[in-house]
Predict the 3D structure of the following.
Amino acid sequence: MITEVQDYYQLLGVQSGATQKEIDQAYQKLISKFDSSGEKASSADEPTLKERIEVAQEAYDTLSHKQKREAYDAVIEVKKGHVASDETRNSGPLRFLGVKENVRKPRHQNVYQDFFGFSEKPFDLTPDPKYLYLSPKHKEVLAHLVYGLQENNGFLKIVGEVGTGKTMICRSFLRELRADFNIAYIFNPCISELELLQTINTELGIPGKSKSRKKLVDILNGFLLEERAKGHRVVVIIDEAQDLQPNVLEQLRLLSNLETDTEKLIQIVLIGQPELDKVLAKEGLRQLRQRITIKWELLPLNLEETRGYIQHRLNIALGKGKVRFSRQAAETVFRYSRGIPRMINVVADRTLLIAFTQSTKKITPKIVKLAVSDIGELVPLQSWADKFWKLVLPSALAAGLAFFAINFFALPDHKKSAPGGKDISALIQENPMDLSAPGQLVPRAPVAPVIQPASPVVEVLPKAEMVNSAPQRRIPSNGPLNIFDPEKLVTYLSSLTLVESKLEAVKWILEAWHVNPEDMQGLNEADLEMIEEDYQLSSFEVNGTLERLKSLNYPAFLEIALPNAQGTKYLALVSIQGDTGIFGSVDKIEMPLSIIDSLWTRKAIILWRDFENLPESLRAGFQGKEAIWLQKNLRLLGYFQGREALLYGPKTIQAVMSLQRNNNIKDDGVFNTDSKLLLYNLLQIYSTPKLVSQ
């Protein structure tokens, strides 16, 4: 039998997300229904008035205390969905109070949750702090909040557009505050000055029912002095502050006057939409404006932050690796959501729903556009191409038409006006002018052109050579760094985090595969999991020596273990020239290969491309056109003799073993990943980067 859990929300008649003010009002309303004349229970089974009031008080205390409420919600979540039996219904807490109880219906699970393997909806609109994505913008806002409170500034202001995550930031900030802070959090600012004081006192757990503003301020001031003596700080946070009336803002300013000789007793944080600046710009609030010492604006996410935001929420919902947004799909989400987190959630949630209906876990731009069309009324950001077609091209056409009109209607016809009907250019060629004598224009006979010798100082390159000679990568230092001491390499890498070193190394490998540097701007940790999807590159882990890497002949990033527990880092090995290696990190590095010998863990990762989308491995007994493709290419390299066939037979096995043996890889005759890398690299028809130039 299911254990009964009293529904305090239904008992008080409030929703699960009710504010403290709503709970207060509901509690007072419920208490007022009880007959205070000391009525007695009608039967032994019926609760007394005192018992009913005690249950109501317990409900109020539970929902008014943050930790108790969270624990209660967790219990309700476990019991949710179970329908009580008739016996439980007849003896529930609402009947105990004399209130008719309604059976709560179980919440339906999200339709696509099981398909994608999520523990919950990853793109729910509810501001759950555990989903907070700390983009650089959010980190700056949190840093300003922490700094403002540590420095005991009087007023702090944070503004941001609708849906940029202000409430999420605020809730996450409150959850992480230490125990020596007392917080009054107000998220329903449409109140009067009196209601403001009552709400602040109630939130702080001190008497707040008085109708006298002076009495409320006196109570608050006494409380602030007591808290300061204990070393505690009191903070009032007002969400949606743009809805505050000017007289309420003035009351807040007066509260900030509560101070000792050396410090403020109360700190006030205003969080609102950009309209808050317009409210504060009014002449009557100039004193308040002067007291706002820290101001910050929370801007929408950019493209790379949007990609990270999407992947972060998928990971939190335990969807890592179960569903993938391609780079192009994430870019489409960004364009239509404009980087606003709430709209990203709306678009991504509808996208997952459509992907579920299509039974696919690969999210493409086409699916996102179907979701956008389903939502409707979303205007995308204009790309540079859109701006060109809408602005530059019409302007160019208008200028062209204007030039044509001027040329046709206004300019004279020089051909008709020239003697003999000849045009000006023909006359100039027949009668060139001698400009040698000053002040005279004497016609002279045409002379053969004189070819001047090339200047010995300046060499002019052909245009094609100039383009090819331009550096392909702009690096932070003026040139490659030369390192000849392992300790210098350790110092260099220790300044980077593990993720930073991996991202820098990956950029060099992607560049070797001719990935456009612009596509790598803002590359983040979430993108590492999408490399195969975005660039059609797979990763192959190698454990061995430099000789094995030379045999496979692909650039790779190496795992480096720094001494003295300084952690693991990554370094790209771009090319090898004799005993010297060209490495890539934040800078291009040249150093002897022996430098890394004591630091390299012998683990390397190669990014490679399966140009022909071959099966995972080809071995004895395989039949298919892939066997013929393999035999043809082995013949080109001089390893296969005989007639090609669909069967992966003894001749093919011997040819593969010869290929493997001659290139220092395991000669088992199975055409697997390392053999594929090797063959693609040896054949001239596939464009692969080379670790060692032939």
Notes: The chain has 30 helices and 16 strands. The first strand starts at residue 155 and ends at 160. The domain at 481-608 is CATH 3.90.70.10 (Cathepsin B; Chain A). The two ends are 77 Å apart (CA to CA).
